[in-house]
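re: ur question from earlier - yeah i can do the single chain one, its not a big deal. heres the input i used so u can compare w yours
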Amino acid sequence: MLGNLDLSFFSWDLLAPFVIKGFIFSIWLTVVATIGGIIFGTILALMRLSGKSFLDIPAAAYVNTMRSIPLVMVLLWFFLLIPFAIGRPIGAEVSAIITFIAFEAAYFSEIVRAGIQSIPRGQVNAGSAMGMTYSQNMKLVILPQAFRNMLPVFLTQTIILFQDTSLVYAIGAYDMLKGFETAGKNLGRPVEAYLLAAVLYFVMCMGLSWLVRRIQLKVQIIR
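and the output i got, formated as tokens:
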């Protein structure tokens, strides 16, 4: 099969009509899921660190449940159950957005919780000594330092999230991988199309990983 590979006729003009739409959706899904996941994850982390069982227990149950289920299963559940619950379809793209935010929030919450706990206790005590409330201390003292420390880990998780966007094929959403698949079928070269998709994913993720390492070095210098 490898001997029959022919990439010579592939050009951007041929691929662009199929790939651009999926590429835009993959990037958009990554950005929206990252922002939503960080916001929701931060809330979950604060609930777990609140010291109040009525907040800690539900948040811990949510995080542990989501982290114990494969993402593709969560995608299928949301895609099939939400329309059943509300009585109308919401579409594969909307299902993917909801699923990724809900799923990634569990992982971002653990990153945020670890980042907050990494701040020396003296910082918390100093804020309290200045008369700050818990929320003021968290907003003005703890979270800014924690988010700076967590930035490389956030970006690493975002790279993983981008790779996971390829799983939306399971519910029929048109992502970058689906674009290459469609191009391969229409051009009669499915193997070559999948190979090009793998190369593009590899190049993008390697570039982002290099960026994360650079940012990590700068964060260490600031410390």
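The radius of gyration is 21 Å. not sure if urs matches, ping me
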